[in-house]
Design brief:
Number of strands: 11
Distance between the termini: 99 Å
CATH class of one domain: Alpha Beta
CATH superfamily of one domain: NADH:ubiquinone oxidoreductase Nqo5 subunit
Radius of gyration: 34 Å
Largest sheet: 5 strands, mixed
CATH architecture of one domain: 2-Layer Sandwich
Order of helices and strands: HEEHEEEEHEEEHEE
Structural class: alpha+beta
Strand order of the largest sheet: 1-2-5-4-3
Shape: elongated
Number of helices: 4
Length: 246
């Protein structure tokens, strides 16, 4: 079977070895560094050069990254700049991948790449929703996973685990309402009892428990852990003691 040939006006795409690919990516203007991590090419670039870097990775025949796999944010609270925007790209033609890491601050906008890969709109909306990262030139930058009235960005390290608001259904108003989170700890009680010591009968076995109590096979102990059932003498056993002949 003859190999599929590209049109004459396009250069042939040739797959590079991982080290050669890293060197080629490092030569793109705006890329600060590029290295191999566990066999994968990882590049670090400037936030103000994202669009130019991505254009080269998409259209240069040495790279041919036709697919944008995903985009995500990383929060480093003790670092400046605090956030990373991470892009993962895949070349189906050459069967190779690259990861681009771009540091930024929440108030600094990163260029949107939805004109290169339209699917980037979904990922940029998610990064804005969860991390508060801004993308300039993105016409649809709105929340995608949280509600429209949600406060804050839940994947930031300083976001409280309980959130700022709680959602509940108000039976009186017949609608979903948003209230400030209230942790009423003073109304909680803890007995610190073992579930085995505190259980006098198994669920569904209440009648059998009452029958045992009425038959004199056990009486409630006046004191003890969790009201444990103390053994009480029952009817005399007519059987002879072990080893004694009748």
């Amino acid at each position: 079977m003859a190999e599929t040939q590209l049109p004459a006006h396009l250069p042939q795409a040739v797959r590079l070895e991982s080290s050669a690919l890293a060197d080629a990516v490092a030569g793109i203007p705006g890329v600060l560094s590029c290295r191999l991590e566990k066999g994968e090419v990882v590049a670090h670039g400037r936030a103000d050069s994202v669009f130019e870097i991505m254009t080269a990775l998409r259209h240069d025949p040495r790279f041919s990254f036709e697919q944008m796999v995903d985009l995500c944010g990383v929060d480093w609270p003790s670092r400046a700049p605090r956030f990373d925007v991470v892009y993962n790209l895949l070349s189906v033609t050459l069967n190779q991948r690259v990861r681009l890491v771009v540091p930024t601050e929440s108030e600094d906008a990163v260029a949107s790449i939805h004109r290169i890969w339209p699917v980037a709109t979904w990922w940029e909306r998610e990064a804005w929703d969860l991390f508060g990262l801004v993308f300039s030139g993105q016409p649809d930058l709105r929340r995608i996973l949280t509600d429209y009235g949600f406060e804050g960005h839940p994947l930031r390290k300083d976001f409280p685990l309980t959130g700022y608001v709680e959602v509940r259904y108000d039976e009186d108003r017949k609608q979903v309402t948003y209230d400030k989170v209230r942790l009423t700890q003073e109304f909680r009680s803890f007995d610190f009892l073992s579930p085995w010591e505190g259980m006098t009968s198994l669920p569904g076995d209440e009648k059998a428990h009452e029958t045992r109590m009425e038959g004199g096979y056990g009486v409630a102990a006046p004191s003890g852990p969790a009201g444990a059932i103390a053994a009480a003498p029952g009817p005399a056993d007519p059987r002879p003691a072990s080893g004694v002949k009748p």
